[in-house]
Each structure stands twice: as structure tokens, then as C-alpha cells.
Amino acid sequence: MSLYNTPNMTGGMDETLVEVFNQVPSLGIGILVFVFFFVLITGVTSQKRKEGYMDVPYWALMAAMSTFLLSLAMSLKSGMISGLTLGIVIASTLLIAVWFFLSKARGEV
Amino acid sequence: MGEIQYTNSLIMIGLFAIALVTFAINFAGDNDASISISGDNEFNNLNTYASGNVSGWSQDDVGYISSAYTNTTASGSSDVTEQGGQFKKGSQNTVNTVFSVLNTGWKKIFGQDNGFGVFLTALVSIIIFTFIRYQYKTWFGKQPD
Questions:
Q1: What sections of B1-40 are H helices per DSSP?
Q2: Structure pTM?
Q3: How far are the Cα atoms of A24, A34, A65, A89, B24 from residue A82, in angstroms, in the given order?
Q4: How many pairs of residues across A and B have Cβ atoms under 8 Å apart?
Q5: Read out DSSP for B95-110?
Q6: Contact list, A68 vs chain B (CB under 8 Å)
Q7: Are the Cβ atoms of B35 and A93 closer than 8 angstroms?
Q8: Which residue in A105, B57, B94, B136 has the fewest CB atoms around it within 10 Å?
């Protein structure tokens, strides 16, 4: 007995993706979380290695923006992302932006 | 954080919120996206509220921050000039030039959407506000933030 129903590949890439997302409902959210933490962790660690300090609010905002753009692309076709998830991504991006703009040190405008 | 940094941070937060939400709504509208936040009450209210807040800043000379500053006088002394004219001239015109350049570029990329018009006006206004605060403190011999 197979774990998943294999997707129907005859409808084009978009339809295939939607069927994959229907079989694994957490895939869309998992991809967004992966992109967010990938950008955050790689940015923070590479900055620490090169500059000696890590600007976490900045990289969190970069990660949030990447996730936001990816979620917008996923929202084009019905079935990949829900409206609730898109709203949560946007709200998270706004909150991270608040953190970023209030984290400026003396001398930075 | 200094006063200027704090004020700038708050305004930037408002501008960022307006830009992000407007971009998401317009993206969905332009591409006939299946999922859109255009019908979402919370984001529409946020957009309206933030736009109303930041549009209180203005580069117009009637009854706003810039006219309050340009009409300010101080008691003249050896260290402070009465009108402060040497500090007041030039910066607003410079920023208005920048505004024209940005406005043209913005219209080409984003069209005539009113949401981005608010963004641009508010961004230029906060730049003018920052100039005014620096000039005011310099006029009175204080260290600007």
C-alpha cells in the first residue's frame, strides 16, 4: 500500500505541484519555514565570520521578505497556500520590520 | 535612541507597512491571483490607518511642520540669529527636486496607485522633518542627534 497517490503529470507543472501539495498539506508551510531560516542562519553566520558581529534584526527582515515574495508567488494558483497562511506571512514580516526599525544603534538613521 | 532616530523609526514602520500591504494587494490584482488579502478587513484597516497617520507630515507650506519651522524666530544675540535664514534656505527645494525624480520613477514602475503616492509623500516629508530638526539644533548651537 503506497503512502501517497502519485500526481497526475499530464496537466502541466502547475497542476502537478498542486496535487503534490494536496497530498502533503504541510509542504507549503514547510517550504516557507525552510526559506526563512535558511536566509536567516546563513546571513547571520556569514556576517559574524566576516564582520565579527551579527545584525539579527536585519537578517530576519531579509528572510521575512524572501518568504513574503515566495508566498506571493505561491498565491497565484489555488491550492498551494491558503489565505490564512499568506496573512500570517505578511503579519510576521510587519512585526519583524518593527523589530528592525527600532533596533538601530546611535548614529544610524 | 535619539529623538530623530526614534521618530524616523516610527515613520519608517508606517511606511513599510503601507508599502508591503499595498504591494501584496496590487500583485494579486495584477496577476489575477487565486489567493489575495484584498478582502481582508485587518489589512485594509491597517492600510487606511497607517496612511492617515503618516500623511500628517507634508512638504506643503500651509500649516504644517515645514511652515512652523520657516516662520520661527528667536531672540537675536551674538550666537543666535533672529530669523535663522542661513539655515532655512535651500533644503526644502532640494528635497522637492528629489521628490520629483522619485515620483517619475515610481509612476513608471507602479503606476498611479494612490497608496504609493502616500508612501512617497510621507517619505519625502520625513526627510524634510529630519533636515528641519538638524537645522534647528544647529541654529541654536546644539549638537544634532
A1: 3-30
A2: 0.73
A3: 14, 18, 18, 11, 14
A4: 64
A5: HHHHHHHHHHHHHHHH
A6: 20, 24
A7: no
A8: A105
For residues A97 and B88, give the distance between their C-alpha atoms in angstroms, rounded to a whole number: 33
Q: Which cell goes with B61?
A: 507650506
Q: Which residues from A are below 8 Å from B54, CB to CB?
A: none
Extract long-range pairs of B27-31: CB within 8 Å, 24+ residues apart.
B27/A72, B28/A72, B28/A75, B31/A76
ipTM of the complex: 0.85
- Residue A106 is nearest to which of B2, B8, B130, comparing CB atoms? B2
Q: Report the b/e string of A14-40 with b at 16+ CB within 10 A.
A: eeebbbbbeeeeeebeebbeebbeebb
Reading the block at residue B127, the C-alpha cell is 526627510
Angle at which helices A83-101 and A27-51 pack, to 10 degrees? 20
